[in-house]
Design a protein that fits this description.
The chain is built from eight helices and five strands. By secondary structure, the chain is mainly alpha-helical. It has one domain. Strands 1-2-3 form a three-stranded antiparallel sheet. A two-stranded antiparallel ribbon has the order 4-5. A hairpin with a 6-residue loop joins strand 2 and strand 3. Helix 2 runs parallel beside helix 4. The longest helix is centred in the N-terminal third of the chain and has 33 residues. The protein is flat and about 50 Å long. Bound molecules: zinc ion (2 copies). One zinc ion binds next to loops.
């Protein structure tokens, strides 16, 4: 059994204390995280309604790992197909890849999700994977490639010019005209430990109305540009 499946079984194990099941969920997210580790964890806290005190609803951990598992199955099936096609292409003498798979790109226009866990699409993880798979297969889907938002972009200054970001998920939709790949981050930066402890959630698994203060488009409008090498996350 893979590490993901072993740890998924631990999340389901009701004989374990909630903190151990939570730690097993963490391992699953390190293995598969379509929005990046932090943003995927944040997404799951909301979609599975994980309360601040896990003991209040340990079954929320099961809902979280099952959403992740369903998305991972969809991704695995596509990744296997992709690998088989690549092998066939290599045998036919075609070595170069026209377009890397969405899970394999070295730089993503949605990099902001790595720096701000509160920004990511609102799609469920299976829906996000389905959308990315469909785009890779050449489907023409309207709106932001990541989330489908069709509203106007939010312009964020890059000091010398500006970039247009999706107003829903902050993916870069209109790159800055210069060749640099700017990194956008919230100001002040988000400490990970508060998100990990689910301070953005209430005791019964709803969103905390007091922290963080800005979400959605209001949050994206407040992003600032930080250049320099990407920190490894
Ligand atoms: Zn978007
Ligand atoms: Zn620029």
């Amino acid at each position: 059994m893979t590490s993901f499946l072993t740890h998924r079984a631990r999340v389901h194990d009701t004989t374990l204390p909630a903190y151990r099941r939570h730690s097993a969920l963490r391992t699953c997210v390190t293995e598969f995280a379509p929005y990046g580790f932090r943003a995927t964890y944040h997404h799951l806290t909301l979609s599975a309604r994980m309360p601040r005190l896990l003991e209040a609803d340990p079954e929320s951990l099961v809902r979280a790992v099952e959403e992740l598992h369903e998305a991972r199955q969809l991704w695995l099936a596509r990744a296997e197909e992709y690998a088989a096609r690549r092998r066939a292409e290599k045998r036919a003498g075609r070595r170069s890849v026209a377009e890397p798979a969405w899970w394999n790109r070295s730089w993503q226009p949605d990099h902001v999700w790595l720096h701000d866990p509160f920004l990511h699409p609102t799609l469920s993880l299976p829906d996000y994977v389905r959308r990315q798979n469909a785009l890779m297969d050449g489907a023409e889907l309207p709106g932001c490639p990541a989330c489908g938002e069709e509203g106007p972009v939010v312009w964020v200054s890059t000091v010398i010019d500006r970039a247009g970001l999706c107003r829903s998920c902050a993916r870069v939709l209109v790159p800055c005209p210069c060749v640099r790949r700017h990194r956008f981050e919230p100001e002040p930066r988000v400490g990970w430990s508060r998100t990990w402890r689910r301070e953005h959630m209430t005791g019964d698994g709803g969103p905390n109305p007091h922290w963080p203060a800005h979400l959605g488009t209001a949050r994206i409008e407040r992003l600032t540009v930080h250049d320099g090498p990407y920190p490894r996350l």
